Predict the structure of NADPH2:quinone reductase.
Amino acid sequence: MRAWTVPELGEPADVLRLDEVADPQPAPSQLLVRVRAAAANFPDVLMCRGEYQVKPELPFTPGVELCGEVVATGAEVTEFAAGDRVIGGAAIPAGGFAELALMEQATTFHAPRALDDAQAASFYIGYQTGWFGLHRRAQLRPGETLLVHAAAGGVGSAAVQLGKAAGATVIGVVGGPAKAEVAHSLGADIVVDRGGEDFVDVVKQATDGRGADVVYDPVGGETYRRSTKCIAFEGRIIIVGFAGGELQQAALNHALVKNYSILGLHWGLYNSKDPQAVRQCHEELTRLADDGLVAPVVSEQLPLGDVASGVQRLADGETVGRVALVAGLPERQAV
């Protein structure tokens, strides 16, 4: 089969290589799937660079999230059968940027029928992260104000839709007019283009000075520091990641003075700490998808041969919405 492999660490465009490799073989707890679509995520970028907490042995195939059709199952797999359309996490090193991939039964789910393959491939990580962050960690309530950073990105776009579905007023922060259009299309009530506006001022004006009840921060650094200037009394800041490249540094005396909470979110831990909650979350998200309340915005659908360039655009912050490999698309002809 064909698969993108990482034989050395570096920027995705420099190290990803499309190779012919042996078909992966499922372990007893695994499924072998034909990849229908695989979404690009920032962990794929970090794994290429060697900066992610999971450091697979070289060479490996990235693509941590996918939609696939079950081809074969290991001896211990009881919930799925050949032909099932599924979504979930890939069993790295046999990731989703390939014609075939491996998935663990514990982190595999039936794909929502309301979503096409590219949307389904983009549904697992971002929407589960958003749901656990907003509902399990922050206890978001109807009528509250939610501030979402990187609102047109993978996890941010999911948070916007989930916030609206929960009855919150959503303020989305983006970088550039194209991303502002995406945030509006997702349902954000107010969209701030950080290139020309100060989100702190916008939040204070929109809330009559009270501030945002919940801040969803996958960016970190200066974005986090500025968010503390517009957090409401008893507000909650959810630390989702640091895509901006700088880790958040919390001034705890400031949290004490303003009575706000700083909540860490490592969604992947729920797969081992509370797997039943993950399955219940998938059921709730599927219901929301069926009701038309949530659906990933996939702005780029790429053939297998264009994956490296798509992952690099994600790394460079140039993507709008989600970027996904979709099986069966025609590949560019060499000139």
